[in-house]
From TrEMBL:
Recorded family membership: Belongs to the PAPS reductase family. CysH subfamily.
Residue positions of the active site: 228
Predominant localisation class: cytoplasm
Entry's transmembrane regions: none
EC category name: oxidoreductase
Gene that specifies this protein: cysH
Function as written in the Swiss-Prot or TrEMBL entry: Catalyzes the formation of sulfite from adenosine 5'-phosphosulfate (APS) using thioredoxin as an electron donor.
BP term (GO), one: sulfate assimilation, phosphoadenylyl sulfate reduction by phosphoadenylyl-sulfate reductase (thioredoxin)
Protein name: Adenosine 5'-phosphosulfate reductase
Length: 232
């Protein structure tokens, strides 16, 4: 089955974005599963497994795409492995074209300290673009309350960079909503979240956050950067 025409996807996305603006997360997921079938996937960075769990309840066996940059905390890989083992999903671990060693050889060591945009491009943005090719729609766990940079997130939108539909079922959720879902369904959570990391990415670019601090403030703390480029 080939992908749909981008103009048609754009129309579907904009209409659904209006119709589902105030809908519960489960209804948004059910719409996406019905509309796109196998051409719908979830992405996760495994700070927690809430989105993967939510979608798996509607569509067991759904693809969950994880970008294995080679620079993750072991706690993150542990969540990924538990999800792959225990949840009704198909985890796809995507590696960049270059290993960390080959990137060091070609671009110099510790590129993340000198040019994090290029490093994210090589290890996240480009691999994700390739990984998403089999799909018409992808779901993310973006939430409006995570950061001013995410405050305008729509529950369904057109991803013009990839000519896809982008679904954010829990965009309207607060951290309390996430915590309640985790407790109700016993969903795996990254141990680092419990240790004071409000947001978890690659280990060289993540630090703990203080209570009340912007949850994204712990990402790329030495740079004027709060997003890796996947969502911009
Ligand atoms: Fe590189 Fe840091 Fe981006 Fe990971 S988060 S890809 S280490 S710059």
């Amino acid at each position: 089955m080939t992908g749909r025409d981008p103009a048609a996807l754009r129309e579907v996305a904009l209409r659904a974005g209006r119709d589902l603006a105030g809908a519960p997360a489960e209804e948004i997921v059910a719409w996406a599963v019905e509309e796109f079938g196998d051409r719908f996937c979830v992405t996760s960075s495994f700070a927690d497994a809430v989105l993967a769990h939510l979608v798996s309840r509607v569509r067991p066996g759904v693809d969950v795409v994880f970008l294995d940059t080679g620079l993750h905390f072991t706690e993150t890989l542990d969540v990924r492995d538990r999800v792959a083992r225990d949840m009704a999903v198909n985890v796809r671990s995507i590696r960049p074209a270059l290993t960390v060693g080959r990137q060091d050889a070609e671009y110099g060591p510790r590129l993340f300290e000198r040019d994090p945009d290029s490093c994210c491009g090589l290890r996240k943005v480009e691999p994700l673009a390739e990984a998403l090719e089999p799909y018409d729609a992808w779901a993310t766990g973006l939430r409006r309350d995570e950061s001013p940079s995410r405050a305008g997130t729509r529950v369904v939108d057109f991803d013009a960079n990839r000519n896809m539909v982008k679904v954010a079922p829990i965009a309207a959720w607060t951290q309390s909503d996430v915590d309640a879902y985790v407790a109700r369904h016993q969903v795996p959570v990254n141990e680092l979240i419990r240790q004071g990391y409000a947001s978890v990415g690659c280990w060289p670019c993540t630090r703990r956050t203080a209570p009340g601090e912007d949850p994204r403030a712990g990402r790329w703390p030495l740079f004027d950067k709060v997003e890796c480029g996947i969502h911009s």
